[in-house]
Amino acid sequence: MELSARTQLIFATTAGFLILSAWLIETYTQSPFYVLFYILAFIVGGYAKAVEGIQGSIEEKQLNVELLMMLAAIGSAAIGYWGEGAVLILIFAYSGALESYTLQKSDKEIKSLISLQPEEAWLISGEKEYRVNASSLEPGNLIKVKPGERIPADGVVQRGKSNVNESALTGESFAKEIGPSSEVLAGTLNQSGLLEISVTKHMKDSVFQRMIDLVNRAQSEAPPVQRKIEEFEAKYVLFVLLAAALTVLVPGSTGIWSYSESLYRACVLLVVASPCALVASTMPALLASLSNAAKQGILFKSGVFMEKLNMVNVIAFDKTGTLTEGNPSVTAVKYVHPSIKEEILIPIIYTIEKNSTHPLAKAILNKLEPDFKDNEKEIISYEDIPGLGVKAEAAGIQWKIGSRELTGINDKRESKLIEDLMKHNEVTGQTVVYVTADDELAAYFLIGDTVRDETIDAIEALKQKQILTLMLTGDSKRGAEMIGRLAKVDEVGYSCMPEDKVNTVKRWKERQAVVAMIGDGVNDAPALAVADVGVAMGMGSDAAIETADIILVKNDLSKLLYAMRLSERLSNIVKQNIVFSVGVILFLLFANYFQVLTLPYGVIGHEGSTIIVILNGLRLLKG
User: Fold this and answer.
1) CB atoms within 10 A of CB 584
2) What range(s) does the P-type ATPase A domain occupy (predicted)?
3) Interval 91-120 mean pLDDT
């Protein structure tokens, strides 16, 4: 049974009072009862670590550092050093309480996330509302979420507007405006308006629950450096026991030391050579970094990838939705009709495009909406021509909105402009949408996928780290190269099928590179799987999430940089801890064999180094 940090602290403090009582009785009276208080201190203070050591040895069929400490304490008492042995137990108990606090602190961060998931929800059925268990919600259910309540399930807003705080999932402190058709996530906070939401996923399949599952899974898996330390621990403990036996036999039998002194030095050896600090060099730091990452919306499937991310020297990016917004938007618009003014063109174009479901039409609507004055024009006729655009009649004029082929622009006045637009289209890869009024050019829109605001800064930061950046996309050469130039990536791969992305990743791995692949779509999943580190953006497709090693809940490349900095800090802190703990062990060993180290100081040096290592790892809880 594992005791809580608080219980261990109570036991340790009680042992401290017992030791103080024993010392007072021993110092100021002639009563032999002081030994009883020391024995009680041994039992109370050493209980937690003794149980942990015995259970660990039985389960793993090998010796561990807890048993070394118990042997050292018992050995000290056996040769009459009750006080030193009790102090060893006391400091070891406090150290164990601190280590448990570290683990429970990390666990507390996860529990605080879990607590954000509402247990109940308001289910709307007809004209009535029922309070139901959130876990019973089914896709298609309609629920009501009041201001100040957390959203109980992933879904789509059917009615109402509000501001939603997603900081629990994304680490983003600013609220997000939502309205009808907006997607919402379980665990997020509805700050202002009343919402009616159609549930799209069971609670167990929600983004929030998957986030919790991933963090728990990551914390249960030790990284390679920790596994190596644990493998080393078992052999090292046997070596220490052998060294302790030789310390008793050789100096004692040769007359260098008395047997009493030899036994004392062996007890000190058991303490100072114990690799407690070395064993604690990695896991507290790893758990702290995983908790830190989770609070920022960065989910690691295993601690292995937290360690490996710092080794990456080549990063391949998918384009759409990763480096770019993933939605077409108008980059420029020009109204050129000689007699129809802009304020007349805008409502007519808006009204016509409102009838279209084409993504480019949506981009035009988004561009015109701020200038639209709610004065829609009457449409006499409307025809959608697949692949080309639309035709319509409004205000007594025949309108065409779409490609050059549809609009048939070819007169001399416009030929130079059209030629320039075609060149622009070829250079930038953007789409030109033409608008004609009675076959005369009235306006044109330049539409393209825009690079994310944070992309250029992220790529520049990666280059400063000497990391090669690649962009792999299924787009044509001109469009891909245009985005590549804007994003400032080192190399561009275009017209890539999923297997092409896989082959590119494999080629770089064959060159001994450590490759990360970042994407969000089904077509990215194979490359994510073969990369050394696969990163899924924004809880994208199920295939991408399933195969990725790291998930960025928010579509934000700055989170990737945060994760890489955290990985680098983890690597540095683990190295610091290992060098420090080994250095302390060597120093204390030399001091012991030169007979200048007493058992209490050995205990303080050993346990102090363990506490310092744990506290150093806890720094990773902070950004």
Assistant:
1) 20
2) 116-215
3) 70
Establish whether 532 is a catalytic residue.
no
> How far is residue 451's CA from residue 52's CA, in Å, rounded to a whole number?
54
> DSSP string of 199-225?
E-S-GGGSHHHHHHHHHHHHHTS--HH
Kind and range of the H or E run holding 552: strand 550-552
Cα 173 to Cα 146, 188, 259, 343, 484, distances in angstroms: 21, 12, 66, 39, 31
CB atoms within 10 A of CB 317: 28
Q: Helix, strand, or coil here: 449? A: strand
Domains and CATH numbers, the chain: 5-111+217-287+568-621 (no CATH), 138-201 (2.70.150.10), 288-324+452-567 (3.40.50.1000), 327-450 (3.40.1110.10)
For 210, phi and psi rounded to 5 degrees?
-65, -35
CA distances from 195 to 147, 230, 296 (A): 8, 52, 26
pLDDT in tens, 295-330: 888 888 888 888 899 999 999 998 877 888 777 788
CB atoms near residue 437 (< 10 Å): 20
For 326, half-sphere exposure in the C-beta direction (CA atoms, 13 angstrom radius) is: 13
Averaged pLDDT, 579-587: 94
- CA dist 21 and 155 (Å) reads 63
The structure tokens listed for 218 are 């990551």
What average pLDDT does range 253-282 have in this prediction? 84
Token pair for 202:
């069971």
Structure tokens at 26: 């021993």
Sheet holding 379-385, edge to edge: 324-335, 440-451, 431-437, 397-402, 389-394, 379-385
In this structure, the dihedral spanned by the alpha carbons of residues 246, 249, 252 and 256, taken in order and rounded to 10 degrees, is: -40
CB of 593 closer than 8 Å to CB of 262: no
The active-site residue, picked from 205, 213, 318, 449, is 318
What span, in angstroms and rounded, lies between the C-alpha atoms of 150 and 168?
11
Measuring CA to CA, which residue among 68, 58, 66, 72 is closest to residue 95? 66
| DSSP assignment of 321-372 | IIIEEEEEEEEEEEE--SSS-HHHHHHHHHHHHTT---HHHHHHHHHHGGG-
Helix (H, G, I), strand (E, B), or coil: what is residue 23? helix
Read off the pLDDT of each residue in 364-388 and give the average, rounded to a whole number.
78
C-alpha span between 14 and 44 (Å, rounded) = 7
CA distance 453 to 434: 28
